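Example record

Each entry pairs one chain with its bound ligand, NAI.
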Amino acid sequence: MTAEYKVHGDVAVITMNNPPVNGLGYATRTAIADGVNKANADAAVKAIVITGAGKAFSGGADIKEFGSPKATAEPNLLSVILACENSSKPIVAAIHSVAMGGGLELALGCHYRIAAPGANIALPEVKLGLIPGAGGTMRLPRVLGVEPALNMIVSGEPVKAEMLAQLPGQKLFDKMASSAEALQEEAIAFARSVAATRPLPLVRNMPSKHPLGDAYFQFARNMVKGMAKNFPAPAKCVDAVEASTKKKFDEGMAYEREIFTALMFTPESRALRHLFVAERAASKIADVPDDTPQREIKSVAVIGAGTMGGGISMNFLNAGIPVTILEMKQEALDRGIATIRKNYEGQVKKGKLKQDKYDQRMGLLKTTLSYEDIGQADLVIEAVFEEMGVKQKVFEKLDEVMKKGAILASNTSTLDLDKIAAFTKRPEDVVGLHFFSPANVMKLLEVVRGKKTGKDVLATVMALAKKIKKTAVVSGVTDGFIGNRMIEQYSRQAGFLLDEGATPQQVDRAIEKFGFAMGPFRMGDLAGNDIGWAIRKRRAQERPNMLYSRTADKLCELGRFGQKTGAGWYDYQAGKRDAIPSKLVEDMIVEHRKSLGIEPRKISDEEIVQRLVFALVNEGARIVEEGIAARASDIDMVYITGYGFPIHRGGPMLYADQVGLFNVVQAMKRFQANPRDDAQFWEPAPLLLKLASEGKTFS
Ligand code: NAI
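Structure tokens for the complex follow.
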């Protein structure tokens, strides 16, 4: 039973109780329908209240049932809502905290609604690439007015109940409760006051119209087109709400259902639903249960005030956690602090940050040149130069000065975390916290689990990641961890494409058209081509047989490091970021091709996209197989939140699933036959081959 039934005098109260948010799973739906029937059959009951226990009225569909037959088993949500509408005794929805999606649709099927202030009201289906599917697009416009309802449905954003209660002419709430605590009592009293009212009001009988009619919907369509870009759902929201003004109620319901079902099968919705589940899955570590004890993190120290150290510090300041930054020289500290200050001041100027918040954040920031001052920090994050020797010195020192139980983290992007941990006598306290640049903006945080990293350390940093609003994904120790290990293969392909006949601008354009925020060459220019150069030099010693195009090295030999030197794969005008194709670079590539004896060929955009994306997929499959990532969907989270992979494609692994793994393997075989390519490159990963031959998917 996931709803309780209790009679208070002559009012029956049905309380949904399916933690955490009273999701409308099969058992909850059944219990609501049973409760309504029971109340109708009991002569002593004159009215009914439906409410939710704990933290919500109802958050809507039960994500635990996503994709399972239970999700749609009878009584499905539509049937439960119909049962409420048809109840011969009035039903009052008593709403508090959260009424979203199906939860709000259920309330709209009740005869009356009373809400507690502070309740978040939303129809968020659009965020999963869908439209509301249980009458939301038909009923919300009838109670709120077309325009406010459409705004909510298209954005999916929550609005506070008290804001909605102020809309002129609104019929969403018949009454506001004085407080969340008083809600149930006031709902029972209200139910009693309407017990004898007949006929019972039904939202379906109310009109839905906009004074401007078609002109309004034309305007709405134009608005949505701009913001929806790769997603079909927002435009469909407009269609459905328009139908509420033009079709009879039941025809409108059928139309809504038709759109909902069609959207369910779009790759875009599949991608968004996949990422919704993937994000939740990524926060779980199989052998670190939810009740693993955590360490308290009340203060943080950051070593190094460079590009990363500053950004990393800001995350903690934003969350109200004091930070002390340590550097070798005062000048470096001053430079780092000035950058943080400038960043915050920019936000204040744009009105994104209030002055008092700015003062508060800067007030939490301290600097030092001495390790003595950081010994008591609960967490220290090292962000010094990417050289093992430098890291060694820092970690030996940290081992000496940090209090017992402090967590020692490294932001290294490529170095072996187990080696770093071995510089200390407490490797169980060492973990990788790999932030992405700019660290105060990018959502991704790779949590690198060393061989000896303690479970309580992992539990602590995963919880901390949530607190600083990062999407944490756990990676095992490997060169480049999940994201950069895969990007190496992507970059290698980008280089081979140049050797074979493509230009940087053609490669960038093709992959940007696919949906990437930025192609590999524009990206290199932004990040600094010298960074990859340094990494390649190190890798050349470790893996001398790895084949690369030499073009990127030649570019660096010319000093073309990217935007920061005013020239990279592209030319840049002073102070501007527009990438201008470079004749010099093109000549350099042609020259290089000649030296290799390669006859250039025309390469299609399709081939470019496949080679870049399947390079990611193949390495991703190896990473899953080796257990570096716990699941394929973790890789998708990494690529969506850290590498600008197009959201509507759901990440490289889901994309491969959607293309079909058999087709992916076939394409690789075609590339393998390409004599100028590194044939070894396209050896399909064993996991990929296995899944493809069994007709299975990564997900
Ligand atoms: P950076 O060169 O901008 O900053 C490094 C800072 O560390 C400098 O201010 C330097 O003075 C200071 N430093 C060097 N040795 C020190 C020591 N012994 N004690 C105290 N301070 C010291 O470098 P960046 O880009 O911030 O990188 C730092 C780390 O973050 C590296 O391990 C890098 O691989 C990693 N990383 C960098 C990313 C990027 O996009 N720049 C992304 C993710 C990780």
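The first helix runs from residue 26 to 41.
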